[in-house]
Amino acid sequence: MLLKVFLVEDETVIREGLRDRIPWDQFGYRFVGEAADGEMALPLIRKTRPDVLITDIKMPFMDGISLSKIVSKEFPRMKIIIVSGYDDFEYARQAIEVGVDQYLLKPVTRMKLKTVLLELKDKIEQDQEQEDYRTQFQNEIQEYEQFSRRRFMEKILEGELSVKEIYDEADRQSIEITAAGYNLLFLYLQEKNKDKMEGFLKKQDEVLHYFLRYPQYLLFRWNVNSYGVLVKGEMSQLEELTGNCVEYMERTCGDQDQLEWYVAVGKPVERLSLLSQCYQSVNHYFAYRFMVPGLHVLTEKTLENYVNSQGENRLDGVDSSQLNPEVIKDFLTKGTSCEIQDFVQGYLSGMSKALESRMFRDYVVLHIRFTTIMYLESLGVAKEE
User: Which residues contact 332 (CB under 8 A, 6 or more apart)?
Assistant: First the structure.
């Protein structure tokens, strides 16, 4: 990939000579622009963003030193070559002060410029390699921290750690987890349309930054499209803190056509050791996003009518929409293995006592079996497998 170079020189003959007689591409560069003074050059430099700026030191309106000061501040990675017709120590001192990379005396020969350009090209490439390495290292550290926090939260929610182990690990990861009470939320965010991915990612970042903004919320990734939020505070504050989260999600995501969203809310607990109970309730509610896709806020209260209304001992009490094969296909596509039990419980609870009928049970089992087989075949799995 060719680097970009920009030339500023008030003497037309010299400027055109450098522009036309230097084989820029052979040196690994592409000539992207020129100007007769710093004032004219600055807007063009901001537009073209060259990798290397070559500028005369003494020009009308804005000289090379003044231009270099501005460019160095705005574009600290840009390399600057000062060209001067004066063998003057004061000029060289000023050039060093503003961070100029090379100081050349006129006349500038092709060989002299070639040597300087190749040196700067090597330096730019080395700097880029270092930047790529730093970026990769930072990404790996961030991924490790996210995985480490997620694994830590998994162990807490599944009751694998003692209270002492929780505090020790929280201290090791610099996580402030001490509070008088806790609640747990699960968030689900997924794009509806691949063509609107940019809008979805922007909205997702907006949502996540909301929870990162406040110390009362501890955000962690749960799986590909899901996040957990541990709400911390006084027991008297938890209802308000949790309500704020729900209101924010409704306000931010409610009228969005580029994303699918759900928020499930658990029941507050007073101890870290009781978070596993909170997790069981919120995970159960979270699974209902497959059965009630039109309900975005999943709580004990919002699901109460749905669950209880299906308890009649007759087939016409069954919600026929729940037998829609798309419900099962949706779970097979987007669900996770840890949600299977809660999904099945939620799916069957909509049929309740109607399942006492042997005929109806057989129908439900066959319905699930054939829907699953058809889904697997759509993925290319052979019927024998």
Answer: 372, 375
- Enumerate residues 6+ apart whose C-beta is below 8 A from 137: none
Q: Say which residues have a Cβ less than 8 Å from residue 228's Cβ, sequence separation at least 6.
A: 153, 157, 184, 185, 186, 187, 219, 220, 221, 222
Which whole number is the average pLDDT over 249-265?
A: 86
Burial 303-318 (b: 16+ CB within 10 A, else e): beebbeebeeeeeeeb
Tokens of 59: 């020009």
Cα separation, 309 vs 303, in Å, equals: 10
174 φψ region: left (φ > 0), alpha (ψ -120 to 50), beta (else): left
Decide if pLDDT at 385 tops 50: yes
Least confident of 169-173, 212-216, 322-326, 337-341: 322-326
Cα separation, 90 vs 230, whole angstroms: 62
User: In this structure, what DSSP letter does residue 359 have?
Assistant: H
The values of phi and psi at residue 59, to 5°, are: -145, 155
Residues 6+ apart with CB under 8 A from 146: 220, 221
- Residue pair 68/100 in contact (Cβ under 8 Å)? The answer is yes
pTM confidence score:
0.52
pLDDT of residue 64: 85
Supply 209's token pair: 């930054």
In tens, the pLDDT along 54-107 reads: 998 888 888 888 899 999 989 988 999 988 876 666 667 777 777 788 888 888
